[in-house]
Design brief:
By secondary structure, this protein is α/β, with parallel strands linked by helices. It is about 40% helix and about 15% strand.
Length: about 230
């Protein structure tokens, strides 16, 4: 057993359960996550609390990405590395990070990527960067989109409810392994995240039932991407 698996076995309930309580967390479509095999999970990102929320409801052990500065914070750096989190230099080409991301999925594990590259302050999902699409195309593994809604309002003193909606596995056969293919695949990921997020937004407005099924890409209504 890998050391990360041991940390996840203990860390998931210890960190995730309290998080699920203070966020009144609900997850929709979790059964769509493949139980094994290389996988990229593409997520939008509003708040640090997104990370334990996703880690708690996703039963795959995730290799998240975190900015290299977070790895240097005493205590936090050791904690996230224990979970297998990879470091990445934001705002520049980081070939070593890309190599390790590809190794994760090539070895049959799940890579968790907050695809906008940073937290979004606008309250809506942002533009998707090409990293997740590049790994999926290069290693020929599926992408699962998971939209998060509610954490843009969550803070101490305002324990807003948080929900996650999981999409169906996406593959990008036929797209070239290059900049053009990465852009097109990233556009598809962005559209899927926005569809799922809009569904969650409407679900919250309707009272957020305990049981609901996120729309498939075939039956989802078109979504206008944020500017």
């Amino acid at each position: 057993m890998r050391s990360e698996d041991v940390v996840w076995a203990f860390g998931r309930p210890m960190l995730g359960f309290p998080t699920s309580v203070v966020t009144r967390l609900r997850s929709y479509g979790t059964e769509r996550i493949p139980r094994s095999g290389g996988l990229v999970i593409a997520l939008n990102h509003f708040h640090w609390i997104d990370i334990p929320c996703v880690g708690f409801v996703c039963k795959r052990n995730l290799y998240f990405l975190a900015k290299v500065e977070a790895h240097g914070v005493p205590g936090l750096g050791q904690l996230i590395r224990g979970f297998g989190t990879l470091s990445v230099r934001r705002g520049e080409s980081d070939r070593d990070a890309v190599r390790r991301m590809r190794e994760v999925v090539r070895d049959g594990h799940a890579l968790g990527v907050y695809v906008e590259g940073t937290r979004q302050r606008s309250g809506v999902p942002g533009h998707v960067q090409p990293g997740a699409a590049m790994v999926a195309l290069q290693e020929n593994v599926p992408v699962i989109c998971a939209a998060i809604h509610g954490s843009q309002h969550w803070r101490l003193g305002n324990f807003a409810p948080v929900s996650i909606a999981w999409g169906e596995p996406m593959r990008f056969e036929g797209l070239p392994r290059g900049a053009k293919g990465y852009r097109e695949a990233s556009g598809q990921i962005e559209a899927e995240l926005n569809r799922l997020w809009a569904w969650l937004r409407d679900l919250h407005e309707a009272g957020r039932p305990r049981v609901a099924t996120p729309p498939t890409r075939e039956d989802a209504a078109p979504v206008t991407l944020p500017a």
